[in-house]
Amino acid sequence: MDKRIAIVGAGWAGCAAAVEGVSAGCHVTLFEASHISGGRARKTFVEGMAVDNGQHILLGAYRQTLRLMRQVGIDIRQAFLNLPLQMRYPPFPAVMDFVTPRWPAPFHLVAGLLKAKGLNREDRLALARFFACCRAIRWDIGEDRPVIRLLEQFRQTPKLYALLWRPLCLAALNTSPEQASASVFLAVLRDSLGRKRTDSDMLVPVTDLSALFPEKALAYCIARKGVVRLGETVRHIAFDGKGWVIDRAEGTRFDAVILATSAAVARSLISDIGDASPLAALEFEPITTCYLKYPSSVRLERPFYALLDYPEKKQWGQFVFDRGHFIRNQEGLLAVIISVSSVVDSGDKTGLAAGLARQLAESFGNPELEKPLWSRVMTEKRATFRCTPGLVRPGCLFDKRGLLLAGDYVAGEYPATLESAVSSGVSAIKVLSELQR
């Protein structure tokens, strides 16, 4: 496929499209407004340390992401801390400890369920019933509905809702179970729990998110004569009858443009070209990450834990990661995650950090955790689209003359994940190839 392609945005979708494009023989030029690649999953710097704008876990089921990582030269075994599927809580209170052995599926789930601490007979039977029913219907519930209705239909217990399904739904869809799409939630469970055991592996990056894939992807493209223009904001695109023009630049035309930006930026760029209403219909949810730095001697027993949040006490944390377990020279740095953080007063960063530190101190029975050396609160205000039942997401092809969309919001089975972003970039190149035929 010999095409001149402009890709706008060097997030995970844009980087995936660039790698696929140069591999297919396209002449790729990639524009990125920032000087740091990665989009909404990128590195930033705090107190001289490279951290992420939000802590991420990947899954073994992320086939397109892992494939492209290998393609650009990343050793998957070295890039991640590979953990078995688990949902483990701190000791105070000791509510649940669920971890699966590395046995073939579905025996790993059965063993994990039987050995789980904190679940009674009713909980175990309800969880077994849930997976049996999902397998029986092949993870397809027909008409979409909120996740909470699905859990009621399969008679899940209040304990399972609080300790398993709610935190999983918030982490996977960044949407509350009362509003989240059950069809999309089941698609995630199907691919991670309904197939091979390795699909359920939890992959924690051992480097910052930009270094994990985007930076390697850009280097891969440059080595294959692609052009990468960081720090260059695209403000206008148009078709002049002969090709696509970026920012009215004379003499530079492209056969196709892939907009791999946020939905808001894409909408502003295409509003004069066609119907942007599918983009306007999307609503978004924020995710907040609070970094708490302690002396290097402070270390949690495990790389991460789920947390019980207590909004009435202003303790909003849902997961905590001890980055010293998997990032070199970041001992004593804890990252606390709050999904759907629109309910949190993120303007009071000092109060928010204090509440989270107090939550950790109480959860782990360690008063030292209440007094971090310093804290930083980061909120990605439009982290993901709100993944509601029956949501109609925009398709990849916007204009048959060669204007395409790529991003985690583009139509697909998954919610807004790194895998959906990467898959959309791969799909954009595939669609372009089909247009050329």
From TrEMBL:
Keywords: Oxidoreductase. PROSITE patterns: PROKAR_LIPOPROTEIN. Signal peptide: none annotated. Its EC number is 1.17.8.1. It comes from the Bacteria. This is Hydroxysqualene dehydroxylase HpnE. Residues 13-428 form the Amine oxidase domain. It is an enzyme of class 1 (oxidoreductase). One of its GO terms (molecular function) is oxidoreductase activity. The gene is hpnE.
